[in-house]
Structures are given as structure tokens and as C-alpha cells.
């Protein structure tokens, strides 16, 4: 091949590489704008009055006084119902999280590193249950809890939320691929029984996957809407995600019959939406290091 042909081939390769990167860059910008624009609008909306939100430019900033007024209207709604809903969400999410960790981590460890009858059947059952939509289980769970008189109590939400087969499977994958068997065998030789091997050796090494399971469980529990909506008949027991429906119903823009002294304006509804996602955002920001370690765990096999 002549020098001219080689030079032409290099130019074509360079142009092809640049065109590919350009297309990828354009697609990334489009996706970023698609997700970022609504968030920016939502953040700006809470700083405006109801009239300014409609009349002013969508991306113009509001004022601090309007934000304070929206804040007071939100937390004065139904004599502080929003504060109660946030407390309920924390109770349900953290209570279910504790039970999930107490069950999922030992279960995943047992499936990965111990031998017992029906072990393979339990693993297959865990995978099958993961494929069932959680909403499909709400009705049978409601009938079961109703038969024992738990409907309307915090346990009617906490106990079903604690059922987290995905956490069991994540833990199973981690212990199957990332824990050296020699370390566990050495601990047994040193005199540790099965429980001590788990608590003193395996569990400290599994801190990344424990954090990952905890994060996924907390996010799922905090954002769960349908289960508490069915299980809790009283507004006093609502979590914040279900409570947002009461705010929506009290917004004249969506429900004209709600106009009155206890009505909610659109900027206040936007503020309620932001408040409802803040705990998840805070947990994510403070746990990024553990989440990255947990997501990369299991990438190599001993």
C-alpha cells in the first residue's frame, strides 16, 4: 500500500472516530437535558408564588419570601400533616431496613457458603420471587394481614417491606465470588463455630454489599406507594409518598372543588415533591463510596 493510501485510510479512520464520538456526545447532551430541565424547573418553582409561576418565564428565579411562604403553607397543611407523614416514612423505611438486613445478609451467606437440603430449591425460589411484580403480592398480603388484625398498624407496612429477595440474591453473589474460602476455613481451624465465622470474619468483609443492600432497601421502602396506600386507611398513618396524593387533591389546579382555606398552590406542591425525595438524595450523597464498592464487589472470582 502506498503512502498516499495509508494517509487516506488514517484520515477516514480519524473522521469515523470523531463522528462516532460526536454522535455519542450529542445523545448524552440530549439525555442530560431531558432529565435536567424538569429538575431545574422544579427547583425554581418552589421560589415563586402561584401567579408568578404561571406568568413569569419558566426558568426565571423567584424570591426568598415566596419560598418561605410556600414552606409555611406546606408544613401548616392539615395542622402539620406533612411532618407526621415524613416521620411515618422514616419509621416504615428504617424499621423494614433493619429487618431486611437481619434476614437478607445471613440468608445470602447461607445460600452461598453452606450446604443443606433444599439449598438449590431455595435459591431458585428466590430468583422466581424476584421476577414477580411487588404490586401483584399486595392483595394476598392484605388478606393475610387482615386475618390477623394488623391492617392499619405500622406492622402492616413494615413486615411486607422487609421481604427483599433482591437483597438475598445480591448477598449470595457477593459471598459466592468475593470471600476467599481459605479465610473461613482458617477461622474454623482457629476454633470459631459457624456463627462466629459469619459475624467475626465474613460480615466485616461484606461491609460494601451490606451498604448496597441497605441503600436499595431504603430507597424502595421510602418510595413505596401502593402497599401503604392499601394497608393504611387513615391519613395519620400515611407515609409522605401517599400523603402527596392529599396535597394533590387539595390543589385547585388539579381539583377545582378543593378551593378553600386549606387549598394548596402549585409551588407548594412542588416543594412537597422535593421534600419527599430529599432523604433519599441525602442518603445517596453520604453513601456513594460504599455503593461504588458494593457495585464492583463480585467482579472477580477467587
Automatic annotation (TrEMBL):
<keyword id="KW-0472">Membrane</keyword>
<feature type="domain" description="ABC transmembrane type-1">
    <location>
        <begin position="86"/>
        <end position="287"/>
    </location>
</feature>
<dbReference type="InterPro" id="IPR035906">
    <property type="entry name" value="MetI-like_sf"/>
</dbReference>
<feature type="transmembrane region" description="Helical">
    <location>
        <begin position="121"/>
        <end position="143"/>
    </location>
</feature>
<comment type="similarity">
    <text>Belongs to the binding-protein-dependent transport system permease family.</text>
</comment>
<feature type="transmembrane region" description="Helical">
    <location>
        <begin position="155"/>
        <end position="176"/>
    </location>
</feature>
<dbReference type="GO" id="GO:0055085">
    <property type="term" value="P:transmembrane transport"/>
</dbReference>
<keyword id="KW-0813">Transport</keyword>
<feature type="transmembrane region" description="Helical">
    <location>
        <begin position="90"/>
        <end position="114"/>
    </location>
</feature>
<dbReference type="InterPro" id="IPR000515">
    <property type="entry name" value="MetI-like"/>
</dbReference>
<feature type="transmembrane region" description="Helical">
    <location>
        <begin position="197"/>
        <end position="218"/>
    </location>
</feature>
<keyword id="KW-1003">Cell membrane</keyword>
<keyword id="KW-0812">Transmembrane</keyword>
<feature type="transmembrane region" description="Helical">
    <location>
        <begin position="21"/>
        <end position="44"/>
    </location>
</feature>
<dbReference type="Pfam" id="PF00528">
    <property type="entry name" value="BPD_transp_1"/>
</dbReference>
<keyword id="KW-1133">Transmembrane helix</keyword>
<protein>
    <submittedName>
        <fullName>Carbohydrate ABC transporter permease</fullName>
    </submittedName>
</protein>
<dbReference type="GO" id="GO:0005886">
    <property type="term" value="C:plasma membrane"/>
</dbReference>
<feature type="transmembrane region" description="Helical">
    <location>
        <begin position="266"/>
        <end position="286"/>
    </location>
</feature>
Amino acid at each position: 500500500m502506498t503512502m498516499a493510501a495509508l494517509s487516506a485510510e488514517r484520515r477516514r479512520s480519524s473522521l469515523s472516530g470523531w463522528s462516532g464520538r460526536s454522535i455519542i456526545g450529542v445523545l448524552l447532551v440530549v439525555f442530560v437535558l431531558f432529565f435536567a430541565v424538569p429538575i431545574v424547573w422544579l427547583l425554581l418553582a418552589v421560589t415563586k408564588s402561584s401567579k408568578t409561576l404561571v406568568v413569569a418565564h419558566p426558568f426565571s428565579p423567584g424570591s426568598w419570601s415566596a419560598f418561605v411562604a410556600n414552606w409555611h403553607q406546606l408544613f401548616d397543611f392539615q395542622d402539620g400533616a406533612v411532618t407526621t407523614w415524613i416521620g411515618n416514612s422514616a419509621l416504615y423505611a428504617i424499621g423494614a431496613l433493619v429487618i431486611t438486613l437481619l434476614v437478607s445478609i445471613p440468608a445470602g451467606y447461607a445460600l452461598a457458603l453452606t450446604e443443606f437440603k433444599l439449598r438449590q430449591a431455595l435459591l431458585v425460589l428466590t430468583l422466581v420471587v424476584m421476577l414477580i411484580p411487588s404490586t401483584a403480592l399486595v392483595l394476598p398480603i392484605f388478606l393475610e394481614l387482615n386475618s390477623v388484625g394488623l391492617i392499619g398498624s405500622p406492622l402492616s407496612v413494615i413486615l411486607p417491606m422487609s421481604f427483599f429477595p433482591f437483597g438475598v440474591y445480591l448477598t449470595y453473589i457477593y459471598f459466592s465470588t468475593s470471600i476467599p474460602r481459605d479465610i473461613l476455613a482458617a477461622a474454623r481451624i482457629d476454633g470459631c463455630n459457624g456463627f462466629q465465622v459469619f459475624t467475626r470474619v465474613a460480615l466485616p468483609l461484606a461491609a460494601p454489599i451490606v451498604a448496597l443492600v441497605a441503600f436499595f432497601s431504603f430507597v424502595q421502602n421510602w418510595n413505596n406507594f401502593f402497599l401503604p396506600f392499601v394497608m393504611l386507611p387513615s391519613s395519620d398513618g400515611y407515609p409522605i409518598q401517599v400523603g402527596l396524593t392529599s396535597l394533590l387533591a387539595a390543589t385547585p389546579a388539579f381539583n377545582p372543588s378543593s378551593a378553600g382555606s386549606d387549598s394548596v398552590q402549585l409551588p407548594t406542591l412542588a416543594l412537597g415533591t422535593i421534600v419527599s425525595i430529599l432523604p433519599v438524595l441525602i442518603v445517596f450523597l453520604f453513601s456513594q463510596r460504599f455503593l461504588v464498592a458494593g457495585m464492583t464487589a463480585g467482579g472477580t472470582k477467587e
